Amino acid sequence: MIAALLFQVPPESGAAQGTPSVLGSSALVEMVRNSGPVAMAVLVVLLIASLYSWTVIFGKMSSFRKATRESQRFIRGFRTATRLQEMATLSADCKASPLSQVFDEVYETYKRQTGGSGPPRNLAPLERSAQTAASEAVTSLERRMPWLATIAAVSPFVGLFGTVMGIVDAFYGLGTAGSATLRAVAPGIAEALITTAAGLFVAVPAVIAYNQFTARIRTFASATDDFCRELLNSLEEIPVRVPARAANAEGVREPAGNLPGR
């Protein structure tokens, strides 16, 4: 709106020069329409990059909110559950949580090793499963983040390329016309600078979103590592069962504050 007011031609000036003035017309829009083929190509590329970056931004915002909500639900359930089977059921409802993905992988390894009851015979395979699952969960959260970083880094240079080519065309036209006046060269330079502004318009939201999402991913990675240790500690604390109690105490986990044991 401010740019439109600044570049709008006053009605008196338009009448004096014989040029029709359209109320509310934007000089910015007119300059875009009068841009050369190189500038138009640059603007189209930047438009596609902007649409894609905003698609990634909104998609990541939605997925991170869902992952955070389900992770909080899952960790609360894990710390109050009394059976591993209960956690397996809860995990099926929290697939977006990286903690759930870690639990599923470790629980499958635990069942293959013990048949689903009793203490694990060897913690090393469980640790490897937990590390692999945590790495895969974080990698899933990082999907399409490199594209966001690329758009943030490249867009200003793409816009600058359009500006340079526009200025070259403006000065070439100035030399051909032989009219070395500011009025002759200013419109071409103004049109060329639009691509730089467009590049910054695309890059700034992408940079902000990338930094915020990277911080969120680090938080998820830290929470996942903490959960891996907590889960392995809980499995390690499963006591050896006597046959009389095995049927009733399979996978038992005491609530927080009670003595550990399953």
Unreliable spans = 1-25, 242-262
Order of helices and strands: HHHHHHHHHH
Please give the largest β-sheet: none
Q: What separation lies between the terminal Cα atoms?
A: 67 Å
- Give the helix tally: 10
Descriptive account of the structure:
The protein contains ten helices and no strands. The chain is mainly α. The chain is rod-shaped. Helices cover 77% and strands 0% of the residues. It has helices spanning 2-7, 11-17, 27-33, 37-80, 84-92, 98-114, 123-141, 145-177, 182-236, 243-246. The termini are far apart. It has one domain.
Topology (SSEs and partners):
Layout: H1 2-7, H2 11-17, H3 27-33, H4 37-80, H5 84-92, H6 98-114, H7 123-141, H8 145-177, H9 182-236, H10 243-246
In short:
Helices cover about 75% and strands about 0% of the residues.
What would the keywords be for this entry?
single chain; about 260 residues; mainly alpha; 10 helices; disordered C terminus
